[in-house]
């Protein structure tokens, strides 16, 4: 009986240890990465050699994030929403449910062909809800991150096309560093 009790105790200890490890993720990036400002208050961390070039927008703040060394070209658009949400609607649960409904909308199923050529999932990045789109097969479609701040109304959408598996992995790591600083 004591052996069973000790085994159960060890099992519980290990499972709680695993939970703690998953909560405090290891750094996703190399410490040599640099913080680069995008537009509308968004920033991200990137390897050396990436540049941000603002482009002209009519009612938003677009730009290009690229690296000749990594042969990556990402187009982004950003801006602010005119109406801020009620704080009751800014809960993590409400925003997650809204993002799931957005994924099922005509835009994601038609434009990104979610289910047939792409996947879309809800993620949390720096305490903001994000929708991440990836091709079912690397190198054959679009990688996109759409993220917004419910409390400030600021949003960002950043897209890469036809990325190799290595490029896609790097872009997904960059996406995980998106942060609204202003």
Notes on the structure:
Mean pLDDT is 83; it is low at 1-26. The strands form two sheets. This protein has a seven-stranded antiparallel β-sheet with strand order 3-4-5-9-8-7-6, sandwiched between helices. It has helices at 2-23, 92-103, 106-111, 165-175; strands at residues 34-37, 42-46, 50-54, 63-67, 72-80, 118-125, 128-135, 142-148, 154-161, 179-180. It is built from four helices and ten strands; from the N terminus they run H-E-E-E-E-E-H-H-E-E-E-E-H-E. By secondary structure, the protein is an alpha+beta fold.
Which descriptors would you attach to this protein?
single chain, 182 residues, alpha+beta, 7-stranded antiparallel beta sheet, 3-stranded antiparallel beta sheet, 4 helices, 28% helix, disordered N terminus
What is the topology?
Blueprint lengths: L1 H22 L10 E4 L4 E5 L3 E5 L8 E5 L4 E9 L11 H12 L2 H6 L6 E8 L2 E8 L6 E7 L5 E8 L3 H11 L3 E2 L2
Give a nutshell description of this structure:
With 182 residues, the protein is α+β, with helices and mostly antiparallel strands. The protein has helices at residues 2-23, 92-103, 106-111, 165-175, and strands at 34-37, 42-46, 50-54, 63-67, 72-80, 118-125, 128-135, 142-148, 154-161, 179-180.
């Amino acid at each position: 009986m004591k052996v069973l009790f000790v085994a159960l105790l060890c099992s519980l200890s290990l499972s709680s240890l695993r939970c703690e490890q998953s909560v405090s993720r290891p750094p996703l990036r190399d410490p040599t990465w640099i913080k680069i400002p995008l537009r509308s208050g968004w920033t991200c961390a990137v390897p050396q050699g990436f540049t941000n070039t603002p482009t002209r927008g009519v009612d938003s703040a677009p730009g290009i994030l690229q690296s000749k060394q990594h042969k990556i070209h990402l187009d982004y658009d950003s801006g602010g929403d005119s109406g801020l949400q009620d704080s009751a609607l800014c809960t993590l649960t409400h925003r997650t449910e809204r993002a799931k409904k957005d994924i099922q909308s005509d835009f994601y199923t038609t434009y990104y062909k979610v289910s047939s050529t792409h996947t879309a999932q809800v993620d949390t990045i720096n305490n903001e809800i994000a929708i991440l789109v990836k091709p079912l097969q690397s190198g054959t479609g679009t990688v996109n991150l759409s993220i917004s701040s419910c409390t400030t109304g600021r949003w960002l959408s950043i897209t890469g096309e036809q990325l190799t598996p290595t490029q896609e992995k790097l872009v997904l790591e960059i996406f995980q560093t998106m942060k609204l600083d202003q």
